[in-house]
Write a structure and sequence with these properties.
The complex is a heterodimer of chains A (about 100) and B (about 425).
Chain A lengths: L7 H11 L8 H14 L17 H13 L7 H5 L4 H12 L4
Helix pairs in contact in A: 1-5, 2-5, 3-5
Chain B lengths: L1 H19 L13 E6 L3 H13 L3 E6 L5 E2 L4 H5 L5 H4 E2 L10 E3 L3 E5 L4 E4 L4 E3 L2 E4 L3 E3 L7 H6 L3 E2 L6 H12 L5 E6 L9 H16 L4 E6 L8 H11 L4 E4 L4 E5 L4 E4 L3 E3 L2 E4 L3 E3 L1 H5 L13 E2 L4 E2 L5 E3 L12 H19 L9 E9 L5 E11 L3 E4 L4 E2 L5 H19 L1
Parallel strand pairs in B: 1-2, 1-9, 2-5, 9-22, 11-18, 12-13, 12-18, 13-14
Antiparallel strand pairs in B: 3-4, 6-7, 7-8, 10-19, 15-16, 16-17, 20-21, 23-24, 24-25, 24-26
Classes of the chains: A mainly alpha (about 100), B alpha/beta (about 425).
Chain lengths: ~100, ~425
C-alpha cells in the first residue's frame, strides 16, 4: 500500500482544529477509518462495551492493530479485521483517530 | 440547511486555508457547488448522505424518505423473540440535520437520468448532479400462490422489512397456544441478511423455551442447506433447543393457504399455527424507475464496485441490498458501501480520481439465545480485475457466547449512531 502521507503529524493537529470536518487526511484514510466507525461509533466515540478510538495515542493504536493481526493480542473479531489492512494503513488510521477530539 | 450555510462556509473556509499549508487532498469550499440527491434513508442512504456532507464541503445533499422514523432490521429478530420492543429499534432522523442535509419527506415516482431529475409523489421535481438510490429490497409476494391474499388477511407475514409486520409476528407468537407449530420459510439466495432467518429461529425458540415449551418449529429452507454461520446455528439449536426445531432443506414454498394455514412446497403440505414465509427478493423498484435494475434477470443492479455508479445509467449510483456484487446484503454492508460511494462521489465532483483501492468491512452478529451471540467478520479489498476480494482471516465463530452478546448490543448502538447522528 504505497499511500503513506508525509504530514501525518500535521493531519493530527488539523483534525483537532476541525474536529469532524476532517479536512486533512486523504480520502483513502478517511474512508478506511470510517469502516471502524460502524462498530466503534461515529468519530470513533463508542456507546457500550466496544472501546472508543477517538483521541487514542497513535503508537498505541498501531501496536494494538499489529498485535491483533499477529495474534499476540487475543481478540474476538479484531484479528479478522486487522488482517485486512496494511501496516501503512495502521499508521494512517492511527494518526487520524489520534487527531479526533475526545 | 440555509440557517447554517453562512457559518458553515466560514468553517469550511478555514479548511481551505489549511489545504494551502500542505494537505493537498483537501477539497476547497470556495469552488463550484454540486447537488447530490439520495433516495432512501435506511442504513445505506442515511450513511451516504451524512458522509457526503462530512467529506464534501462543496456538496449539497437532499435526502428523500417517505417514513417518519428509521426502523432497524438488525435487532428486529430480538423484538420477535421478546428481548427488545419496537421502541428499541425505532429511531428519529432529527440528528442528521446538523450535517446540513436537506430532508424531504416524500416518495420518488419518476427518475429522468437524461435531464438528471427526480419527481416526487408530492409533485416536486428536483435536479441532481449525482443521484444515489438506496431503496433496499422488494419482497416478491407475487412469487408464491395465495401469498398476497393470506398476507392481506393477516395470516402470513414475512417481517423482512422491520416495521408493522415485526410487531404483528410477535403478537401472533404471543397468541399461539403452547404446543403450536411455527413454520418459517427461508427464501432462495440472494436475499437480505443471510443469517437472519436462522437467528430468527433462535429467537423464536428462545421464546418458546421460556413460555411455550411444548411448541415446535419447522424450517422450510429454499436452499439446500443453512446458508450462513451453519456451525454457530447448528450448535445453538442442538445445545439450547434440543428436539424443538425440525430443519428441511431444498423445500421452497409454492403456495400459501391462509384459510387452512398450510404452506405447500414441492415436497410437503405443512400445517402451521403461525406462518412466517419470506418470499424471494429483488432490488427495490426505485432502481427500475432509473433503468438501473439491469442484470440479466432484471432483478438486481450492476455497478462499478469502486464508485457504485450504475454500469448503464451515468450519474446514478446504487448502494446496499439492491446491488449485485456477491457481497452479503446487510445493513452493515450497506453502510460501508455508502461510505465508499460517498468518498467516490466527492472525488468525482471535485474532478479527481476516486480511491482506486476502497475497503469494505463487515461485522455481523447473530443472537443465539437471550444472552449469547456469534459473529462473522470480513474485510474485502477492491481489485479492479477481481472486484472485492475477501481477506484471508475473514470468518465466523463456531459457537456463540456471552461476550459476543454484549458486543452485539454495543455494535447496534454504535452503528445506529454512525448512520443517524
Amino acid at each position: 500500500m504505497p499511500r503513506i502521507i508525509t504530514p501525518l503529524a500535521l493531519a493530527g493537529f488539523v483534525g483537532l482544529a476541525l474536529s469532524g470536518l476532517a479536512g486533512a487526511a486523504d480520502i483513502h484514510t478517511k474512508s478506511i477509518s470510517s469502516t471502524c466507525m460502524s462498530c466503534h461509533g461515529p468519530g470513533g466515540k463508542s456507546l457500550g462495551a466496544i472501546p472508543s478510538l477517538t483521541g487514542l495515542d497513535k503508537a498505541y493504536f498501531v501496536k494494538a492493530m499489529k498485535d491483533f493481526k499477529s495474534g499476540a493480542r487475543p481478540s474476538t473479531i479484531m484479528k479478522r479485521h486487522a488482517s485486512g489492512y496494511t501496516d501503512a494503513e495502521f499508521e494512517a488510521m492511527g494518526a487520524y483517530f489520534a487527531g479526533l477530539k475526545k | 440547511m440555509t440557517l447554517n450555510r453562512r457559518d458553515f462556509l466560514k468553517i469550511s473556509g478555514a479548511g481551505a486555508a489549511i489545504t494551502l499549508t500542505g494537505c493537498a487532498t483537501t477539497s476547497s469550499a470556495s469552488g463550484p457547488r454540486a447537488h447530490v440527491v439520495v433516495v432512501g434513508a435506511g442504513f445505506g442512504g442515511a450513511t451516504c448522505a451524512k458522509y457526503l456532507r462530512t467529506w464534501g464541503p462543496n456538496v449539497d445533499v437532499t435526502l428523500i424518505e417517505p417514513n417518519d422514523t428509521f426502523i432497524s432490521c438488525p435487532i428486529s429478530n430480538w423484538v420477535i423473540g421478546g428481548l427488545r420492543n419496537m421502541n428499541d429499534i425505532t429511531h428519529r432522523y432529527d440528528k442528521l440535520s446538523k450535517h446540513g442535509i436537506k430532508m424531504v419527506k416524500d416518495s420518488v415516482v419518476a427518475i429522468d437520468p437524461g435531464k438528471r431529475t427526480v419527481t416526487t409523489r408530492g409533485g416536486s421535481t428536483i435536479g441532481y448532479d449525482r443521484l444515489v438510490l438506496a431503496p433496499g429490497i422488494d419482497v416478491m409476494t407475487d412469487s408464491i400462490k395465495g401469498y398476497q391474499d393470506a398476507e392481506a388477511a393477516g395470516k402470513v407475514v414475512h417481517a423482512w422489512k422491520a416495521g408493522p409486520q415485526t410487531a404483528q409476528l410477535r403478537q401472533q407468537l404471543e397468541a399461539m397456544p403452547d404446543g403450536g407449530t411455527f413454520v418459517m420459510s427461508v427464501p432462495a439466495t440472494p436475499y437480505r441478511c443471510p443469517p437472519g432467518p436462522y437467528e430468527r429461529i433462535c429467537m423464536v425458540a428462545h421464546y418458546f423455551k421460556q413460555a411455550k415449551p411444548k411448541s415446535k418449529i419447522i424450517v422450510l429452507d429454499s436452499n439446500a442447506d443453512i446458508v450462513s454461520k451453519k456451525p454457530l446455528f447448528t450448535d445453538a439449536w442442538n445445545t439450547f433447543y434440543p428436539g424443538m426445531i425440525e430443519y428441511r432443506g431444498s423445500n421452497a414454498p409454492v403456495s400459501v393457504d391462509g384459510g387452512k394455514m398450510i404452506v405447500t412446497t414441492d415436497l410437503d403440505d405443512v400445517k402451521a399455527d403461525v406462518m412466517n414465509v419470506v418470499p424471494r427478493q429483488r432490488a427495490g423498484s426505485l432502481t427500475a424507475l432509473a433503468g438501473a435494475r439491469n442484470d440479466s434477470g432484471g432483478n438486481w443492479c450492476t455497478v462499478n464496485l469502486a464508485t457504485f455508479e450504475s454500469t448503464t445509467v451515468p450519474n446514478v449510483h446504487v448502494i446496499g441490498d439492491s446491488v449485485l456484487s456477491g457481497l452479503p446484503k446487510s445493513g452493515h454492508m450497506a453502510t460501508n458501501q455508502a461510505k465508499v460511494c460517498a468518498a467516490a462521489i466527492v472525488e468525482l465532483l471535485a474532478g479527481r480520481q476516486p480511491d482506486a483501492m476502497p475497503v469494505i468491512a463487515n461485522t455481523c452478529y447473530s443472537a443465539t439465545s437471550g444472552n449469547t451471540s456469534g459473529y462473522v467478520a470480513n474485510v474485502w479489498r477492491y481489485d479492479a480485475a477481481k472486484g472485492y476480494v475477501n481477506q484471508p482471516e475473514s470468518g465466523a465463530t463456531p459457537k456463540g457466547d456471552a461476550a459476543n452478546f454484549v458486543f452485539n448490543e454495543s455494535w447496534a448502538k454504535n452503528i445506529w449512531a454512525d448512520v443517524l447522528s
